[in-house]
Amino acid sequence: ACRALVDELEWEISQVDPRKTIQMGSFRINPDGSQSVVEVPYARSEAHLTELLERVCEKMKEYGEKVDPATHRKSYVRVISHDGTKMDLSGLKFDGDVTSSLKFACESIAEEYEDELIEFLSHEAENVKDRLCSKRT
């Protein structure tokens, strides 16, 4: 669930126009008449990541459960591609129980580890999934 959550967040971040910015800082006027406002890239800003965390778990309905035939280990995989291409759905369990339990797990992780998710995703870091989902949580 954590890995699916990070995948969705990273995909959403990649879809933001790199030229889009957001104003950060204080909107108060300084004694000299200037303002302490800076423009920062919108993608990976705290406002952007907070907004994504509020709605990303809705994407879990696009996932199904796959069981590895050799190890019998369960994993969640996307059943609907981001770009609409057809996907291989063989050996996939896709029903309301799977999606609702994945959505619940996603919401629990997003709520409990919101600060860590924002911390890791605010910088383009390597291996966010491993660092966050295996080591931190």
Automatic annotation (TrEMBL):
Residue stretches making up the DUF3456 domain: 1-136
Cellular component GO terms, alphabetical: endoplasmic reticulum
Pfam families xref list: DUF3456 (PF11938)
Domain of life per record: Eukaryota
Family: Belongs to the canopy family.
Protein name as annotated: CNPY2 protein
Natural source organism: Myiagra hebetior
